[in-house]
Amino acid sequence: MAHGLSEAGLDVIAFERGPWRDTAQDFPPTYAPDEYRYRVRHELFLRPAQMTFTFRNNPSQTALPIRDWGAFMLGNGVGGGGLHWNAEMWRFEPSQFMLKTHLTERYGAKFIPAGMTIQDWGVTYDELEPHYDRFEYLCGTAGTAGNLRGAIQPGGNPFEGPRSRPYPTPAQKQPFNATLFAKAAREMGHQPFPQPSGNMSQPYTNPLGVTLGPCTFCGYCEWFGCGNYSKASPQTTILPVLVKQPGFTARDNCEVLRIVLDAGGKRATGVVFVDTDGEEWEQPADLVLCCAFTPFNVQLLMLSGVGEIYDPAAKRGNVGRNFTHQTVSTATAFFDPATHRFNPFVASGAIGMCIDDFNGDNFDHGPLGFVGGGYMGQVQTNGRPIETTPVPAGTPTWGAKWKAAVKQNYNSSVYSGSGVHGSFYSYDDVFLDLDPTYKDRFGRPLMRMTIDFHENEHKMSAFLTDRYAEILRAMGATRVDKLPRTGHYDVTDYQTSHLCGGAVMGAEPSTSVVNRYQQSWDVPNLFVIGASSFPQNAGYNPTTTVGALTYWTLDAIVNQYLKAPGPLVQA
Amino acid sequence: MNRRRLLSGTALVLFTASSAPSRAGTIAGALPWAPGAAAPPRPVVPGPWHFFTPAEGRTVEAIVDRIIPPDPDGPGARDAGCAVFIDRQLAGPFGRAEGLYDHGPFVTGTKQQGPQSRLDPATQYRGALRAIDAYSAQHHDGRPFVDLAAADQDAVIGAIEDGSLPIEDVVTKDFWTMLLKNTRQGFFADPVYGGNRDMAAWKWIGFPGARYDYSDWIDRHNEPYPHAPIGIAEAPLWRPAASK
User: Is A278 in contact with B99 (Cβ distance < 8 A)?
Assistant: First the structure.
């Protein structure tokens, strides 16, 4: 966004709460492979002392602060979550953008569970396709096309939307477990394909002239920065070009406290930020772009008085409404050590074989009684032993029996953290608002998360995990332990960092915070960009869709807004 | 309208809290880079305890050696240096809960809401070690944990695990979660932090450590990986011959 706007001749200042990050000083290959420092002690992440949230499962409980991270991780510093991600690069399926219309037409309105507040996005897959394409080429995405301009391609994902051209680089090589998974899935009638990857399968120079190197399968992707310059991130794709752009300035270690509005509340006049001395400054601006991580976008709107905060009892307001996460589950498969050796440390954030047969509405939900789905696959992200020493369920957690089980299974089991990557649809009782008790270091109220799983997601997770386990058994496993998502949402249990919604986009101001161009309905010179715009979350990793939406909005700003500043959609 | 001012202008000082030099920075025109800005980990130096008293250190060594006991096939946590690892961690930012959210009120919530202790890990360990010896004495003829037979030590650890061993101002199950994690971290972390001595735990399971390049191995399926582990700051090959 900053690059596109500065190319259009604007003066752009970017604010970042954390420090500037770069490979040479923050994660050089000499000490990047340090599980304890980065994975356990969270070196690259936001510290809860800087900013955290309160959490409860439902409105009858008192929310308590998240004192240390668990269920999700938040980036800190220039590059944000794009620094520590796995680089799993999915497009959402076309029907996802028309979800409510699609499900209603196929199953009838009564099929959608009570309290579920899914809605259409106000933008279609076809409109986003050129922007998906641009983002994939920026990142050098490795993959096998499944649908080229409507023609289904062998070896790719037959369920994907039509793409205008192939992936910029060929799919990654696959390890043993992924190869077994694909064979078993194919024999069961499913349609396996390589996971699209932002970890390079070969050297790649992107359209901006920035070059990435090939992935070495070191197994330190998620939670880590890539010391090899082979994972697509802001550092490896755009920052070297952006900083040279005339008119661009970055301010790091500066936290924006609020957006300043004019007296009428209909125009943003700038932002107030605080530096590390605690000095507050006001930065005037003609156009304000809120590009923070999901809940921080929502928090800035709430603290700045933009829009009405959602009230679930009165069913009023939209800011904070339709907050979602992900419904991830998995199964661990154990094999005979005499015949199977997986070398789990030969890994990358996004190598694996997946199927999409049970994602979105790619299968008939009619007899199943739930909506939603997810991709599933063998994605070998790591064999780092603090995190990944699978043992069969029921094994003691310590002592001689635990130790023997670790030794027995380390190299002969497969464990995929996001084996089943399920959707999380929106509900009227899952939302963000401001906590009445707990404050941040500047005395502002913390955001309060009210979130739980619903019967629909439990049913979906049980069904998907069963399908996944069937494939693992067909791979030749001697034992499969299923781990479907059950019970309450637990803030200590890591799933993904895919928090979505809270400032959702849509066709109507009555049910959305921003219009189809991510422009605020209330303050037209304010754009709110990111997964905060997702009306509900699909069964995919969200980043590629965030990238596509960003290019879509950039195009609207440069080609429409700058020519005639004002609302791009009339309310 | 061909060149709009987007986000610019002169910053306005509204409020001054301190005259200390600011770490906030402005980056424009070139990537910021300075020699020597990298921060490799500081290797733990063996020697006296930094946090534990000598008696506490012996107790922790005994506890971790039951959590991960030695066997003919692999090292126990004591010999791997797990107690040293935990000691150095408790003496540092981890022990002080540095960076975590520490505003009150402190209220015990549901399991799903996570630990809510007002005490930092170092204080929790100190209280827990006192409680463990008190519990051992109460159930085993006045003897401290280190003097118990292995089976009796296991029973005491079981009482931490199931939450029945009381620790003042600490949720015992939360302490157990932390103790178990810290022990495994010491066992499997890079040896630069004082545990996993001689990369013994990595050799035991066959993890090659910090090698960082398996380009030749991604499509060699079901073959044993032949190379010994290396750490961030050490590899067997780097040692002088005399000390091998």
Answer: no
- Judge whether B33 lies within some domain: no
**What is the model's pLDDT at position B19?**
35
pLDDT in tens, B152-161: 999 999 999 9
Nearest CA in chain A to B225: A343
- The secondary structure element, H or E, covering residue A64 is strand A64-65
Q: What is the pLDDT of residue B32?
A: 87
**Which residue from A minimizes the CA distance to B107?**
A64
As a whole number of angstroms, the distance between CA B235 and CA B3 comes to 58
Q: Are A460 and A65 in contact (CB under 8 A)?
A: no
Domain count, chain B: 1
Which residues of A are less than 8 Å from B38 in CB distance?
A: 24-26, 28, 31
Residue B18: the pLDDT is 34
Picking from B25, B37, B185, the nearest residue to A36 by CB comes out as B185
Mutate to test the interface with B, among A15, A27, A34, A280 (most CBs of B within 10 A): A34
Residues of chain B with pLDDT under 70: 1-22, 240-244
Mutate to test the interface with B, among A286, A287, A346, A395 (most CBs of B within 10 A): A346
| pLDDT for A180 beyond 50 | yes
Residue type, A544: T
Chain B segment 131-150 residues within 8 A of A by beta carbon are: none
Task: Give the best residue of B86, B88, B112 to mutate against chain A (max A CB count within 10 A).
Answer: B112
Q: How distant, in Å, are the alpha carbons of A118, A344, A351, A352, B111 from that of A379?
A: 29, 10, 6, 4, 30
| Residue A313 CB coordination number (10 Å) | 8
Per CATH, the number for A2-211+223-561 is 3.50.50.60
User: What is the structure's pLDDT at B15?
Assistant: 34
pLDDT of the residue at B242: 52
Question: For residue A146, how far is the Cα from the chain centroid?
Answer: 22
> Which amino acid, residue A483?
L
What residues pair up with A53 in beta bridges, in sequence order?
A: A447
Q: Which residues of A touch B156 (CB under 8 A)?
A: none
8 A C-beta contact, residue B158 and residue B179: no
Chain A: closest CA distance from residue B13 (Å):
5
Q: What is the pLDDT at residue A363?
A: 98
CB contact under 8 A, B32 and A276: no
pLDDT of A308 above 80: yes
Which range marks the domain in which residue B185 is found?
Answer: 54-97+115-205
For residue B59, tell me if it sits in a domain.
yes
Residue A219's pLDDT is what? 96
The domain segmentation of chain A, as residue ranges, is 2-211+223-561
Q: What are phi and psi of B122, to 5 degrees?
A: -60, -45
Q: What are phi and psi of B13, to 5 degrees?
A: -80, 120
User: If you search the block for the tokens 């950039």, which residue do you land on?
Assistant: A554
Is A498 marked active-site? yes
Structure confidence at residue A396 (pLDDT): 98
Does the CB of B5 have a partner CB in chain A at under 8 Å?
A: yes
pLDDT at residue B234, rounded to an integer? 87
Cα dihedral A545→A549→A551→A556 (10° resolution): 160
Say if residues A255 and A278 touch (Cβ distance below 8 Å): no
pLDDT tens digits, one per residue of B97-151: 999 999 999 999 999 999 999 999 999 999 999 999 999 999 999 999 999 999 9
Instruction: Point out the residue among A66, A179, A407 whose CB comes nearest to the CB of B204.
Output: A407
Tokens 């496993």 -> residue: A477
My answer on whether omega of the bond before A65 falls inside 30° of 0, hence cis, is no
Query: Stretch A487-512: mean pLDDT, rounded?
Result: 96
Maximum CA extent, chain A: 74
Residues A182-237: tens digit of each pLDDT: 999 999 999 999 999 999 999 999 999 999 999 999 999 999 999 999 999 999 99
What is the pLDDT at residue B73? 87
